[in-house]
Amino acid sequence: MDAAALWQRYQEWLYYHAGLGFYLDVSRMRFDDRFVEQLTPKFEQAFQDMAALEAGAIANPDENRRVGHYWLRDPELAPDTELKQDIVETLENIEAFVKKIHSGEISPPQAPKFTDILSIGIGGSALGPEFVAEALSPDLPPLAIHFIDNTDPAGIDRVLAKVSDRLNSTLVLVISKSGGTPEPRNGMIEVQHAYAERNLDFGKQAVAITGRGSNLDQIANAQGWLTTFPMHDWVGGRTSEFSAVGLVPAALQGIDIRAMLAGAKEMDIATRKPQVKGNPAALLALSWYFSGNGKGEKDMVVLPYKDSLLLFSRYLQQLVMESLGKEKDLDGNTVYQGIAVYGNKGSTDQHAYVQQLREGVPNFFLTFIEVLHDRHTSSIEVEPGVTSGDYLSGLLQGTCQALYENHRDSVTLTIPEVTAHNVGALIALYERAVGLYGFLVNVNAYHQPGVEAGKKAAAAVLDLQRKVVEVLQQEGTPLPLATLALKANAPDRIEAIYKIVRHLEANQRGVKLQGSLGDPGSLTVSA
Length: 527
Prior knowledge:
The chain has about 525 residues and is α/β, with parallel strands linked by helices. It is about 45% helix and about 15% strand. It is globular and about 80 Å long. It starts with a helix and ends with a strand. The mean pLDDT is about 95.
């Protein structure tokens, strides 16, 4: 396609939202009008399905749950008065609590004011708050935030070391819907231990964000924690940023949560339009469907050209991959759906993997994210008439052009600047795009059986570990691995037992291995 034709296609397919100052360019995706026409009936059904979702239809039949994250930024949409009131009151309670923390009206027992936040969560209870903190937290926030988002002991130690001299003024957020998810539970126990070692009253510095009546809710109430905020069963983890999960840590950092909600609401309105060309979420879903042939055959590479949006690709990994990565469709057919997501930031990636993107395996499409506003102050010139921001813009445009010339398709999304309003709109846009795409390919975007399977498998390993330790303590003499497996009633799990005892020995947990470590079959194990 020559330059004149490309310019015409750009104008034809450019989406612009005046209220948000938001642009979406899908002209470098090589679909044609015939493809759009063929997909139109699917989109018409998807728009109807999305409307039903927002109206309160059961969208997650596995758990008999509605999916209502859209109501969080527009309570008027909630299907009943009780839900609406709950959303409004939760937001007001968050703001009232944060105001008291910032003013010092609520303070830790051994310090005049809280100085830091330690947020403990996993998956959607961590990725959204981490992305928003990186994107929007001011340079000098009223409280600095730190995250424990894994059950890695060394990682926990590293985070605790950062606040070691301020532990007495650190507010702890424990985020877990059920209260039984192992990673946040383990993080909570580790942090409670750190507080006890300093003779600090953990409960007087702790907040629970959890389901009403959950194990964590009961613990927080019994131990007299500062307060609790609800996690509703109709909000999934990966769409929970506009619930207490994301709003509490954001507000504590001084981020304008009302602006985030307003941006999301404005994008929701734009993405309800029941036509492809005037709906930015539909344009994204169209592009994803075209690139991957409706089967996820190509990966999504996300390149935000702004340092503060570094974690957006990581956030989108969960939102897209956990939502769309499904073995079965809604009719029970085996389909193996999904779109793999990866990325870092521009222009760093131009010195990392853009070489392969341009000349290697063409198994991807790109999403460029452009931010028009360079900085809050004026820029110096690094060359006559050229600033650092000009270079960043030029590198984005040049990379897009170079890749397109070599038959690599891309989408470019442009926002005026990184603000709470625009970040809220970005999150809402991709939530809606994922929902529409899920309907297009007939999968349930709101459950995650694969994640639950992994949790069950992990629990089985830990149960086996308890049996192995019990056998070793009872026997008192070295046992070959095969014998140990028999005595633990797990003769078909020798490899798992080998990995268990290897880990226990490495951490001096009362297990000894004798024999050649390079020849596991020769090893004997004793307590």
